Amino acid sequence: MSSITLDRVNLYYRKRQDRRIKDFLIRGNSRFGAIEDDGRVHAIRNVSLEVHDGDRLAIIGSNGAGKSSLLKVMSGIYPPSDGTLAVEGKISSLFELSTGFEQEQSGWKNIYLRGLMLGETPDGIRQKMNEIAEFSELGDYLNMPVKYYSSGMYVRLAFSVSTAITPDILLMDEVIAAGDASFLDKAKKRMRDLMKAAQIMVLVTHSMESAKSMCNKCIWFNRGEIAMAGTPKEVTKAYIDATVPK
Amino acid sequence: MGGKRLRYSRRELCKGVFFVRIKEYLTGIWHDRHVLLALVNSDLSQKYRGSVLGVAWMILTPLGLALILGTVFTVLFAADPKVFIPRLFIALNTWIFLSGTADGGTSSLIGAEGYLKQTTVNAQIFPLRMCMVNFTTLFFSILAFFAGYAFLQPGMFGPMMLLVIPGLVLNVVFAASWAMLAAVLHLYFRDFQPFQNLVIQGLFYATPIIYDASMLAERGFGLLYQLNPFYYMLDIVVKPLMGIIAPSGRVWVMAFCMTAVLFLASIKVFMRVKRGIALRF
Hints:
The complex is a heterodimer of chains A (246) and B (281). Chain A is an alpha/beta fold.
């Protein structure tokens, strides 16, 4: 049994302000100004939500609505500032795929390290390395330090490792925007397989089609709050009606 | 993120008693030990990549410095080179370990941003990574010391040298704790790294590394080393290795107490901010 339960969860964070001596000496000089006087952002506001086995939840909303922050709270990366989060099950997160590499190390070493970070044992990841390498189609590039990789190659590598591990709960944030057409097709197929295998999937997306075709539940997130919850068809229609000018 | 059961609430985070945090801190390191070892391995293999002499530089750098400084100071102070140069070599290496770990600690969390924003890997392994990389260098230096010292002073080898083991354990805990605190302080106050560098550079001259502590005492500046924590940490490594006199009981007590205080303080501070680290970038 897998589940995600959020009970009146709030998330605040402070934007890091680079202050210089003149900011302290000359009042009102700060570039952040009065909009966010103390730099505090209330990213998630009193959100309560339950996701259970079989749920495929789409989260839609405009940029800056707090969708990605919500996903990071669910994954345990951001701790709730207030409220309770309870997660049962093995989580795999697919977001910010182009970060988190040892730049000077080869693709092979990064596969190993990333696998360990995702909860694999050394033996477990070693057994999967050839399959991961094959899926990534990076070939001899895997022997090169990843600092020479293009952004598409980073995504290929990270996606191949992250999706080689079958989770109970899959959290995704529109990860496969990068990559060429052939890889995109392959990645979509693997994602579909992963979605079938995972007991719970949460997908943050701007694609209404993805929300409708891949999910059975949907929430519209707006300014850190759930503006609407329901079936993907209902929620995407309401969202489009409210946000797209006629 | 394999198979973790997460349960976070603000209230639960704050009410945790201290020993629970110590346990959580240590089990977190154990949980991610394979990641830690892979990172240390990666750093060590990277450090001398492309260099002809490779890992030999780990020993050649302090050895060269000890020979240069040792020769100069042997001439200046008419010291016995067979004692002075080995002592300088080991004191210098221990200092490089402590100061290097403190310095590396400051950037350890900032450098791990990509991992900490993407996975739930335990953040305490990143300052520890710096400590382990620097300790590996110190370890090889000690092996080189034994080889050289066996040639220079074979009569000094004896059971007293075994005291270096508890001395090194205390030094590792001390350095790792310092790195934890430095990592958190630099995450919140970006002026901390240059400030710490300034303090460490000053302490280098105030610590009996290139001279003996007795020289300060003879000139009435004994307090300068007696109040310096690095003096005690160095003494519990240098004296056992030299095999001449064992560190005094007072030195051991001071080293142990300072390490214990720093260890507990670092856990208290680190575990307090740990869950919010990903929000600080």
